[in-house]
Amino acid sequence: MDELSRLRRDAVARLCQAQAEGRLSIEAFEERYALLAEAESSAAVRAIAAAFESDSGSYDVVSVDPAALPEPVYPPMPATRLAAILGSLVRAGNWNVPEEIDLLVILGEAKLDLREGAFAADTVVVNLSMTLGSLELTIPPGTRVENDCHLVITSAEHKRPRKRPVEPNGLTLIIQGRSTFGDIKIREKDLAEPATLLQRMGLRS
Question: How would DSSP label each residue in 114-180?
Fold first, then answer.
């Protein structure tokens, strides 16, 4: 996220707080929100934010029915950064899967298993930057996959279940970015049943 986007996000968050606390009417909120959205430089965003924060007397103090307030506007959360540099990265089991992942792989390997993850949204975006590495993604059957990654001397494989038709599960995985001298493998797999695991461990016939 660049400086302009970060400053605009923070200013919008403070603007929403002022409106929710009754220090700003809906009309004034919409006017200032439009100014922030149209600001084309960091200096402009700072000036707009300073104007509505420094002059507390300019706020329209109104009595508003909470039920009439618009839904709060939440700025997008920043991407989670993961890296595998000269080593291995593994995320599996019950982990919090963010909406967006910035993944850096250099002379390493990354394995992300989403099957037991707790998802922040129904779409997961992986921004991949990989050089001389490998990425293995294990996903629940029925996940929609969009691989928009720019591949340079890179192999990409998506292995789907063949035994039965699979209905869409509502989850979308988007892979974008760039891979050079890499290997990308996508696997759609069900979680193994407990009995199967016990059998594999030799504890049940």
Answer: -TT-EESSSEEEEEEEEEEEEEEEEE-TT-EEEE--EEES-EEEEE---SS-----S-EEEEEEEEE
